[in-house]
Amino acid sequence: MQKRLISKKEAKVGIIGLGYVGLPLALEIARAGFKVIGIDIDKKRVAMINRGISFISDVDSKELKYFVSRDRIKSSTSYAKLRDCDIIIICVPTPININKEPDLSAVVECTHGIRNYLKKGQLIILKSTTYPETTEGVILPILKSSGLKVGKDFFLAFCPERIDPGNKKYGIANTPVVVGGVTKNCTRMATLFYRQFVNSVFPVSSPKVAEMTKLLENTFRNVNIALVNEFAQLCERIGGIDIWEVIDAAKTKPFGYMPFYPGPGVGGHCIPIDPYYLSWKAREYDFHTAFIELSARINEEMPYFVVNKIIDALGKSGRCSGQAKILLLGMAFKKDISDLRHSPSLKVYQILKARVQKVLYNDPYIPELRDDNKIIRSVALTAKLLKKMDAVVILTNHSKYDYDFIARHSRLIIDTRNAVKKQNRKVVKLGLGR
Ligand SMILES: NC(=O)c1ccc[n+]([C@@H]2O[C@H](COP(=O)([O-])OP(=O)(O)OC[C@H]3O[C@@H](n4cnc5c(N)ncnc54)[C@H](O)[C@@H]3O)[C@@H](O)[C@H]2O)c1
């Protein structure tokens, strides 16, 4: 019954959490022909979606409006809508608390919401990134308390999310999906569902394996960024070696090497967070994840390293840092997107403002941001402004920036992304000591 509904695309899909993961997923599933009901606790987001207005840069409002107007995407704050769903996908946040411990409260809360409306034949998929054993150890017990049997009455799987916001080459449909069900039937059901809108599905033997796969992918990225950040610091210490040139040379090797780039730190909702989920879980097994701790230490140090570099560059160019006016370019955590979460640019902003007279910012994707209780607005990037600044710091290398223009009109540039290609004495690059 359930299988037929899925293959005929008549199954109704509920998505809980309509953010960077949930909203693009809703659109992709609607494109494949399913009806989607989105649930979110954020009333504003729900209202915007129901008017066909997107707040995620990868989701086109026109297309969203198209599906909303044809009743293929609806959104609500009420969990009662899950009663109508055959498939429910959980895409809520999995942050860490101030002690860097997992905070699964949103996952637990929405699982209780699902349990209240759990019915025979439903397939539940967890997408939120988490530590191994969450699906079977946290979600399953709540759903089982309904009296329904997993693998028989309802199906449960973990399918990690791999979305890369801003990536024009790889989207949901052409990025393979890993599927780990609690039972074989659960894996079969989730695999069948994903085959309707994703080109390649890779089933694994359990949710634990799928959960660990996601953490391996993100920790791999975190560790490699830390490695190259350490190399960048070493290049500065030695002097005369440009880390960017070294990476360009290393990546000519066609096997066994993959380029990662230095920068002011790591940001977003995944790379700085997910490894902590694993290190927290590892401690339960008397295991210390040395690579995770070490890479966190290096990556979290980078904003401080960059600020010292700015102060140093000001001094070398004869400016007094205490009276300096600095312009930061790019506050999003990576290029061409508007995501500010855990952005290292914010950290640089916070550390720097205590050490110089004034810090301004420009980001074409972020018109304003909150600093304590104040709203700070992005300033217009004009030749006049650039000339007035004691230093301009490139933190995120958005493609929209005209780097020649910036280089022409600035007095001093600290470039943490190797964005300014025409080098001259006023450009101070991260990863190149003089
Ligand atoms: N953003 C990414 O690039 C990315 C990539 C891979 C994995 N992930 C993982 O996916 C999950 C979701 O991330 P995101 O970036 O989409 O987060 P997000 O903050 O952009 O969106 C989450 C949404 O869930 C809603 N929400 C919170 N609690 C809720 C609840 N109890 N019930 C209903 N809705 C609730 C929020 O209002 C928000 O709209 C996280 O676990 C994250 O680690 C994110």
From TrEMBL:
<dbReference type="InterPro" id="IPR036220">
    <property type="entry name" value="UDP-Glc/GDP-Man_DH_C_sf"/>
</dbReference>
<dbReference type="GO" id="GO:0016628">
    <property type="term" value="F:oxidoreductase activity, acting on the CH-CH group of donors, NAD or NADP as acceptor"/>
</dbReference>
<dbReference type="Pfam" id="PF03720">
    <property type="entry name" value="UDPG_MGDP_dh_C"/>
</dbReference>
<dbReference type="Pfam" id="PF00984">
    <property type="entry name" value="UDPG_MGDP_dh"/>
</dbReference>
<dbReference type="GO" id="GO:0051287">
    <property type="term" value="F:NAD binding"/>
</dbReference>
<dbReference type="InterPro" id="IPR008927">
    <property type="entry name" value="6-PGluconate_DH-like_C_sf"/>
</dbReference>
<dbReference type="InterPro" id="IPR028359">
    <property type="entry name" value="UDP_ManNAc/GlcNAc_DH"/>
</dbReference>
<dbReference type="InterPro" id="IPR017476">
    <property type="entry name" value="UDP-Glc/GDP-Man"/>
</dbReference>
<dbReference type="InterPro" id="IPR014027">
    <property type="entry name" value="UDP-Glc/GDP-Man_DH_C"/>
</dbReference>
<keyword id="KW-0520">NAD</keyword>
<protein>
    <submittedName>
        <fullName>UDP-N-acetyl-D-glucosamine dehydrogenase</fullName>
    </submittedName>
</protein>
<dbReference type="InterPro" id="IPR014026">
    <property type="entry name" value="UDP-Glc/GDP-Man_DH_dimer"/>
</dbReference>
<dbReference type="Pfam" id="PF03721">
    <property type="entry name" value="UDPG_MGDP_dh_N"/>
</dbReference>
<dbReference type="InterPro" id="IPR001732">
    <property type="entry name" value="UDP-Glc/GDP-Man_DH_N"/>
</dbReference>
<dbReference type="GO" id="GO:0000271">
    <property type="term" value="P:polysaccharide biosynthetic process"/>
</dbReference>
<comment type="similarity">
    <text>Belongs to the UDP-glucose/GDP-mannose dehydrogenase family.</text>
</comment>
<dbReference type="InterPro" id="IPR036291">
    <property type="entry name" value="NAD(P)-bd_dom_sf"/>
</dbReference>
<keyword id="KW-0560">Oxidoreductase</keyword>
<feature type="domain" description="UDP-glucose/GDP-mannose dehydrogenase C-terminal">
    <location>
        <begin position="327"/>
        <end position="422"/>
    </location>
</feature>
<dbReference type="GO" id="GO:0016616">
    <property type="term" value="F:oxidoreductase activity, acting on the CH-OH group of donors, NAD or NADP as acceptor"/>
</dbReference>
